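Justification of resources, computational component.

The compute hours requested in this renewal are based largely on the per-chain cost of generating structure records like the one below. Each record pairs the submitted sequence with a full structure-token output. That output is archived, and it is also reused by downstream analysis tasks.
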Amino acid sequence: MRERIVRAVAGTMVLISITLAYFISIYWLGLAAFVGINLVQSSITRFCPLEMLLDKAGVEKKSCC
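The structure output for this chain reads:
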């Protein structure tokens, strides 16, 4: 469950960044770059700030199935 939430949030942030870059300013692509860098960093170090927030929110770590 948690992994799906992390992927959904990352994907949503990238789509929002692209939309804002198209309609507002090209500098919004920095948000997409930040999300991408955070994904690479978390795959290497296994540290993800969003997972810490999900811990505090009480989201379960693994699904039952």
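The chain has a mean pLDDT of 91. Residues 2-57 form one domain.
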